[in-house]
Each structure stands twice: as C-alpha cells, then as structure tokens.
Amino acid sequence: MKIVITGATGFIGTALCKALTEAEHEVIALTRHASAQQRLGDRVSCATWDGQSAGEWEKTLDGADAVVNLAGESIAARWNAAKKEKIRASRVNATRALVQAMSKAHWRPKVLVNGSAVGYYGPRGDEELTEESSPGNDFLAEVCQAWEAAAVEAEPLGVRVVRLRIGVVLGEGGGALSKMLPPFKMGVGGPTGSGQQWMSWVHRDDVVGLIQFALERDDVQGALNATAPNPVRNREFAQTLGKVLHRPAFLPTPALAMRLLFGEMADALLLTGQRVLPAAAQRLGYQFRYPDLMSALQAVLKK
User: Fold this and answer.
1) 48 phi/psi in degrees, rounded to 5
2) Residues 6+ apart with CB under 8 A from 245
3) What are the residue ranges of helices labelled H in the chain?
4) Do residues 10 and 167 lie in contact, with contact meaning Cβ atoms separated by under 8 Å?
5) Hey, which residues does 66 pair with through a beta bridge?
6) Cβ(74)–Cβ(80) under 8 Å?
7) First-residue to last-residue Cα distance in the chain
8) How many angstroms separate the CA atoms of 228 and 299, rounded?
9) How far is residue 61's CA from residue 246's CA, in Å, rounded to a whole number?
10) What is the mean pLDDT of residues 227-247?
C-alpha cells in the first residue's frame, strides 16, 4: 500500500514507519522537521507541511491507499492557557487539513487511522470502559472528542475512519517509561499519589500492530482502544517495574508534590486514570503480542 503518515518522527511514528517499510509498503511522511529524512531513513519519503495549511503536500494524498494521523503537541508538560490551545489546535487543525485534502483528491484514500487517546473517557475510577462507553468532560476528553469529530468528517467522502484511542505506551527509547525509569533505577521509585488509579498501558509493538490491523482489515471501523487487555493499578505497575529492575518500589510520590510540579496536568494524567479494555480489537480477533505487564516490561528492558 501507499501510506501517508503524520507524526512519523514521534515515539509511535518511527516504529510504525519501520514496520511498514519492512512489510514493503510505500511510506510518505508529512513533517515539519528538516531532520525527518535523516531520522526515518531512505525508505521513507518526506513531504513538508505545517499541520494546518493547504499546500503542495496535499498531492501526496491523491492516490494514497491510507492515511495514519499521529500529529499532535506533546501533553507531557505543565499546562497553561497557551499550552492547552496548542494541544487542541495541533490535533484538530491537522485532522481538518487532512480531511480537506482528501476532499480534493481524485483518488481518495480508502482508510484514515486517526490518533486519539484514552483521555477520551475522562477520569472514571474503577469503571470498566470499552469503545461503547460515554466520553468524559474534562479538558483532555473534550480535546479527544473534537479530534475524533474532525476525523469523522472523512466518512461522507467514502473513507473508512478508525479512531485509535491510545493508552500509556511502553517502549524503548522514549514514551512514558523513559520518564519513570530514573527514580526506579536509583531505588527511590514507587506509586504516584494513592497508587489506586488505573493505568491502561500498551506495548508500542501492539500499537503498531493495531494500526497495521486497522489498515488491512475492512471490518475495522470507528473507535478502537489501543490498550492491553490487562490494565493495572498504578501501585501494581510500580511493583512490577521494581521487580523487573530488581529495585525497591515502595516510596510513593505525594499527590501534593505532583500538583505543585505539574499543576492541572498532574490530575489529568498522573493522579487519575481509566480502566480501558480493548473490546473491539479482541472481538475482531487481534492477538496481543504483550497482553500482560510483566512480559511487556521485560521486553522493553530486555530482562
């Protein structure tokens, strides 16, 4: 297939480009980064875009079989009004630009796999959440709803749209785990806040696998939770990570300290969570490579 990807230089995007080129697909990355070609290698073609405006890049969609949209400003920082607007606009505007380009194409892509996040559901305590569950009403939930709504605008064009609600991604060389590792390696790691909040984690290989699954299967459509089938509480995550590293994992990080350091983001991402299950993926027959946390962490850390 000819596949156009945004967010190709990101933590998920680089792994996806590698997997797709190894499978002999033609990959075109839409990117704002001058160094993208060097980072992605010669097997990926690069086209420049700004994530919101029309331009020459639109020609890459004409005749493409698929689009994977992973573009978006990082949410892992202290939020203020300007940062929150960047988080929202980077996702919604990029998606709208892609859909607008599709509407102009003579030969439109057959499928759009559009990034979203488990933040769609908002903080929900112990409630088990599937793709059928209602959205939340906090900032991240509202961003995800607007992001997905922009993607759904491609459906009247005859494009199959998959809304990929991604959990906490574990993998080598980046992502959430790279920020967690230093204190654990020093023996001062542990749960965050109460430790009772749920973490809907997923190995990066399974995110890539689910995207490939969505590209190849015509019956994959609508919301698709990209989370492992066995979410865990934050305390269990810390204990398991400690076991894999052979380090203690009992020293909690107080909620107050997290709020002082990260403000609103601490409550949205670190001190609350969601218990999200990949019901659609399992119903459709996707086989998770890393269904349990221990095997996922061992694979990432090569233990």
Assistant:
1) -85, 135
2) 181, 184, 185, 301, 303
3) 11-22, 36-40, 81-104, 139-152, 175-185, 204-216, 234-245, 255-262, 264-265, 279-284, 293-301
4) no
5) 3, 111
6) no
7) 36
8) 14
9) 49
10) 97
User: Tokens standing for 211?
Assistant: 């995207």
Helix (H, G, I), strand (E, B) or coil at 262: helix
Task: Give the phi and the psi of residue 135 in degrees, each rounded to 5.
Answer: -75, 165
Q: Model confidence over 123-175: pLDDT tens digits?
A: 999 999 999 999 999 999 999 999 999 999 999 999 999 999 999 999 998 89
Phi, psi of 114 (to 5 degrees): -110, 130
Asked whether the whole model's pTM tops 0.90, one would answer yes
Helix, strand or coil, per DSSP, at residue 67: strand
Task: Report helix, strand or coil for 172.
Answer: coil
Question: What is the three-class DSSP state of 237?
Answer: helix
Looking at residue 23, its amino acid is A
- Reduce the DSSP state of residue 287 to 3 states and report it: coil
Query: Residue 76: what pLDDT?
Result: 87
Alpha carbon of residue 191 to chain centroid:
23
Contact (CB, 8 A) for 84 and 138:
no
User: Comparing C-alpha atoms, which of 103, 116, 23, 148 is closest to residue 2?
Assistant: 23
Q: What is d(CA 264, CA 278) in angstroms, rounded to the nearest whole number?
A: 28
Phi, psi of 8 (to 5 degrees): -70, -25
Beta bridge partners of 26: 2
What are the two backbone dihedrals, phi and then psi, of residue 70, each rounded to the nearest 5 degrees? -115, 15
pLDDT at 249: 92
pLDDT in tens, 40-97: 999 999 999 999 999 999 999 999 999 999 999 999 889 999 999 999 999 999 999 9
Q: Report how far residue 52's alpha carbon sits from residue 16's, in angstroms, rounded to the nearest whole number.
A: 23
